[in-house]
Design goal:
This protein is of the alpha/beta class and about 325 residues long. Helix content is about 65%, strand content about 10%. The chain has 13 helices and 5 strands. Strands 2-1-3-4-5 form a 5-stranded mixed sheet, with helices on both faces. The longest helix has about 30 residues. The chain is globular, with a radius of gyration of 24 Å.
């Protein structure tokens, strides 16, 4: 039965509205609702003064009172975004780190500078692991490029197999995953060298980029194998999560975005782990976390991608553009 043109127009309008809702939620909504809530900072100095400062932080800051050595270690471990050091006498120093997410660092620096100015005038600024503009952008850019590059590679293989009528075996799928990982790593390394020649292209940095690219490629290849082009409805919008959510710290996000998006997005693990490696902080806890999370994603993706099909027909079915299996009459 043929549907009236008016019904088709209504369906198209609803589809457009749903896309707008998804885009608004994943991009502009996260940015429009940014507000500091419990941003972790530390204060080090005479206990009576430090306690008095910590008591006036309000809901925007979450203070930790510590010794100077303890406070700097908290900053190295990325458990705080900045340190207010109260030296004997009038000297006050605001300490931040280039290895910490720049969004959190900016909020912490502004708040700590304001507190220090009210206490003893403009403070001295000290930055651990100094970072330039390229260094702040590179970790998130690498994660986003790894995701979209791997996604295009997986989609291209799926479409080429469909057009040529070929069945993809485990060898072809594994070659696509590893090939995408190698080539995307080379692309990212080239951009790093172009953007800032001082960015370290060490084995650790390149290894994490390769792990992220192959993990993303394996995960995407597995979903494309299971769902065909329908997987794009999930994989493509996730690309928008990278700049909108993964580039933020949880204390700046609306609780809904923090729970529904930031808590699980793989971009944040690769981004923060790579940030630590680029800025000379390989012992930061988020490097180990990134290795574990990306390693699990890679293993799970490879299992789904390389699991033997029960029949050649089942292997070919997901490549149909509409996900419907054609049934011939014999």
């Amino acid at each position: 039965m043929t549907r009236p043109a008016g019904a088709l127009a209504l369906v198209a309008a609803v589809a457009g509205a749903l896309v707008a809702v998804v885009l608004g939620f994943l991009t502009f909504g996260a940015q429009a609702t940014v507000a500091p809530d419990g941003v972790p900072v530390a204060v080090a100095g005479p206990p009576e003064i430090a306690q008095r400062i910590a008591a006036h932080g309000g809901g925007q800051l979450a203070w930790t009172v510590a010794t100077p050595a303890e406070a700097r270690q908290l900053l190295e471990d990325k458990k705080v975004y900045g340190v207010l050091e109260l030296a004997p006498g009038p000297a006050v120093t605001v300490v931040t780190s280039g290895a910490v997410n720049p969004a959190g660092t900016q909020v912490a620096q502004q708040a700590l500078t304001g507190a220090a100015t009210a206490l003893a005038g403009p403070p001295k600024q000290e930055v651990l692991h100094p970072v330039g503009l390229a260094g702040r952008v590179a970790p998130l850019a690498a994660s986003a490029l790894a995701w979209i590059g791997a996604l295009v590679a997986g989609l291209a293989l799926t479409q080429l197999a469909k057009r040529t009528g070929r069945t993809l075996g485990a060898g072809a799928r594994l070659l696509q995953v590893t090939g995408a990982g190698v080539l995307i790593t080379a692309v990212v390394a080239g951009f790093f060298a172009l953007w800032d020649s001082t960015l370290p292209l060490t084995a650790g940095v390149l290894g994490l980029v390769f792990l992220a690219a192959t993990a993303f490629a394996a995960l995407q290849a597995g979903l494309l194998r299971l769902l065909g082009l329908r997987a794009m409805a999930v994989l493509a919008p996730l690309y928008l999560v990278a700049p909108a959510v993964a580039g933020q710290v949880p204390e700046l996000l609306n609780p809904a975005y923090r729970a529904l998006l930031w808590s699980w997005t793989p971009f944040r693990f690769s981004t923060e782990g790579l940030r630590s490696l680029l800025q000379g902080a390989p012992d930061a806890p988020d490097v180990t976390t990134a290795l574990w999370v990306l390693g699990v994603l890679l293993a799970a993706g490879l299992v789904v991608t390389l699991w033997p099909a029960r029949s050649a027909r089942q292997e070919a079915e997901p490549h149909l553009a509409d996900g419907v299996v054609e049934v011939g009459v014999h």
